[in-house]
Amino acid sequence: MSDTGKKAGFSRRDFLKAAGATGLAAGVTPAAALAAQDAAPQPGTMPKRKLGKTGVEVSVLGLGGMFDTINNQLLLKQAHAWGVTYWDTAEAYGNGLSEEGFGRYFSRNPNARKDIFLVTKVVAKQGSDYTARLDAALKRLQTDHVDLFFIHAISGIDEMTQYKQWAADMKKAGKMKHFGFSTHTNMEDCMLGAAKMDWIDAIMVTYNYRLMQTPKMREALDACVKAGVGVVAMKTQGGGPVKTDSEAELKMAGRFMEKGFTDKQAKLKAVWEEPAIASICSQMPNLTILSANVASARDKTALAREDVQVFGELAEATKCDYCAGCGSICQGAVGGLVAVNDVMRCLMYYRDYGDQDLAREVFASLPEETRARMLDVDYTKAEKACPQGLAIAELMREAKTLLA
Description:
Largest sheet: 8 strands, parallel, barrel
Strand content: 5-15%
Distance between the termini: 23 Å
């Protein structure tokens, strides 16, 4: 949940609006709920897991930095105090503002840096000087190294081959400890490819109660485990381009409320049920969401088998509302004319996240040809090929109206 997609970064002006965004993360439980559970949370109380072959233990809940970190220093301090020590940001978030906010926290709290597993990312750009971009990120972060560096939002594993020697050089120079990529398009193929590259340390992928049901995701995750590739989950709520309140969703929400936690917290717990997931990177731009997610991470109640079945039933009942990120299928069906998957992600931000500014910002950053040709393409083949059964043509028309 910490990324906006390929070529999609906030402007510095629009980035500041994200401070008040809601719906980007999991919980809605009042902050008092956490205080009642533990009046004085201390560092180290958050569960940790090993991040693949790195041997490093990271907090199972990570802080996604796509919000106004500069003016939310108290939130950073509270996340740190509650043991949320996996911090994720990117060059694209506010054109560096998110990194600057983390850097400000480290400058004001000089002992904090040793506690934080710090991650940043850059979107691939042709002819880019990646060393200069990394150096600039380190300057904004006010640190001499990052713990993990990602090439951001790849859609195919072949995109990674050019970075092998560069990553080794940056590790040798002490500027990064570990290297990998993030992806929410063709995730499973990218994961299977990463498992064959012994120089990929960790990856961040879209993973939620919908995707965990599929055989291909299971195969991809198993391959990463076997290869020692650390896996971090994002977009764990499973939101899609169609916002619904189906009977299955209401049934699920009621079921988990009776157990003492929200359906959103339950979706986090479903991801944590998979031991191969080292951490969940969650967008938590306010203390209410942060406290709810921390409470969920600390809670030791395991989901019952029946709970898992409920998620399976929900995924099946609402599959035509969710884009599973298999962009190669729909894009191939339209001859590569339109990046359907990217448009669907914008609709997800608009409807499921409820963040219209973010949706329009990401849409505006998509290739001009995608936006120009959206209504001129025949999506019949794409709809027939879509494993989710999405009404692609209708959704593309809606996207043009809502986002243009």
